[in-house]
Amino acid sequence: MEKNNLQVKAINKNVRTSPRKLALVCNFIKGKKADIALRDLQFTRKKIANDVSKTVKSAISNAENNNQLDIDNLFIKEAYVGKSLVMKRFRPRAKGRASPIKKPFSRITIILEEKKEIKQKVKK
What we know:
Blueprint lengths: L6 E9 L3 H11 L4 H9 L6 H19 L6 E19 L5 E17 L10
Antiparallel strand pairs: 1-3, 2-3
Helix pairs in contact: 2-3
């Protein structure tokens, strides 16, 4: 197995936000280099960007410690969101009724890959 094709994954299982809001931030960093993605997440105005950056940092440390990859060549190959559990609450309404409130949780998956640097020979 070549080192260049190795993928590293980090999953954050219970993030307290809806998948729809989280998908905006994940699509924003998809395809970027890892250090540039962390910088962009730091200046994003979304509150959830902090949890996404923690997951990216976890994936970077997995790549460095478990697979001995070069962290300068890592880029975010995939960043996607899935649904997790939903807390169900009820709110009292008029005439003795109750209406449901759904508080969704999400799951972030970040997959990093080491970018191959091919040096081409220049023909003269």
